[in-house]
């Protein structure tokens, strides 16, 4: 079986070298040496002002909402992973879905139309690593005094106008889940340029602790461990190789599939991209299901990222025609470091054959 994704693992010996230090220090979690080292190195690699390593990308979103004191309605994208919506609901806010553009990101024009006196924030996703229209969104947020959070779970390494994408918005988040381009097993991060927000996020991540016996507000346990940081550190050595290979693999598919009657990510619109997913948009759901079945018959995994459109979850409401239509017609095909070119060619042949 060829899976749709597979984690990149560093050579085991290199991970074990970090374990040696963990055993020597006998320090497993709580702002350990490796967590700090990972934060320092990632800050430099990503060129961000501030970042905190957290337990996962979902808690990162929840911390962001909490830190900004967001209440009421949050304008958000329906085309994302469920965590984007569930975090809003989990924090006691109401997601208001705003339809997307053909490039899969939230439509700024529709954001402005959806603003009501109850709106307090915008939570948008750089889905598949495709940047949202960050400048236009900030203009709208400034005009209407709204906070902006970006779910950058897919956007590791992406830049906008030469700046890390994580520097945009009040707070940005990322996921380092095992299936992501860069992984720490479970893990994620929050990023903000604002020093006082950064301090607040630090309290929130660690139960509100301000020293051993003092507390600064209500907090949660969103810390991550030395073992997860060790995986992240061991993977850093391979980051460049992973990103270059991913681009080659992406282009391999792109070249061989662009003549088919499907829509692929429009690379000409992107000045910086991380090639993290390969979504194919079919003309109909029937076509998608036919291709998916053909791939399955040949032991090839694929995933309907992202289906259903999040407004269809049974705990929310709203109508977003384009997102609903696109989410029924998008399929992601295998893309991971160890995927071979012959396997990619086989996948392309199957797709070509079933779309004949
Ligand atoms: C868009 C998006 N947001 C949030 C998350 C949640 O991240 P995590 O799995 O690290 O909690 C994911 C994870 O897959 C995601 O794809």
Descriptive key words:
alpha/beta, Aspartate Aminotransferase, domain 1, two-stranded antiparallel sheet, 12 helices, globular, binds pyridoxal-5'-phosphate, DegT/DnrJ/EryC1/StrS family aminotransferase, PyrdxlP-dep_Trfase, DegT/StrS_aminotransferase, pyridoxal phosphate
Would you count the extended β strands for me? 11
Mean pLDDT: 97
- Shape descriptor reads globular
The molecules bound to the chains, other than polymers, are: pyridoxal-5'-phosphate
Order of helices and strands: HHEHEHEHEHEEEEEHHHEHHEH
User: What is the first-to-last residue Cα distance?
Assistant: 24 Å
Report the biggest beta sheet as strand number plus sense, adding barrel if it closes. 7 strands, mixed
Biggest sheet: strands side by side, in what order? 1-9-8-5-4-2-3
Strand content: 5-15%
Compute the CA-based radius of gyration. 20 Å
The CATH architecture category of the largest domain equals 3-Layer(aba) Sandwich
Protein name: DegT/DnrJ/EryC1/StrS family aminotransferase
Pfam families: DegT_DnrJ_EryC1
InterPro entries: DegT/StrS_aminotransferase, PyrdxlP-dep_Trfase, PyrdxlP-dep_Trfase_major
GO molecular function: transaminase activity
